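Many introductory courses stop at the sequence. We go one step further.
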Amino acid sequence: MQQLSIPIPPVFKQKFNGKAFSHCLVCEKELIASGAHYLIEKAVRRYKDYNSEDIVFEYAICTDCHQQMLVHYSEESLEAMRLFFAEHVDFRLRQDTMRDMAEKDAFDTGDWIRNCLVKGTPIENLDEYQMGCECIGDRMIISSMPYIIGGPAIDELTMQLSNETIDQMRGLMDKFLGLPPDLRKLLNDSGILIL
């Protein structure tokens, strides 16, 4: 089956300069010219009263490094994540619908990042959310991604993870995102995770 893709949409480019992510956060492998397979993830905090938002973090990670990260998560947590998403999301239907739309040249990224993947909450009603997509080189793959997952769903998922896994996720954030102490505390108090 042919892999459908589109140029990486602006929403999945770097916020500060509008350019595509060029290197893996972890191994620093070049992503675009090499045609590497990778994921992009962003965490966003919205300020409804001011009609603004901030990117808490954003990064690209090659699939090899992502798989290595998952090795450090407990088996129980990996199973809890699998069950959580299986219970709340029909990934087969999502992927088939995306594929059908792409084949009809009717795929719009905005349609898939308008509501929380898990709860269906509209993005404008979320204070925090994370978004992600899957890419190869300079193209976004149309798979079960792109997605957004809202703060309430992340909190619910976090409650099902082991302390060991949460510590691993937060340790990776500290190591690779280089967050200042005040932001690190804020993230430790919220449900934002590296997925």
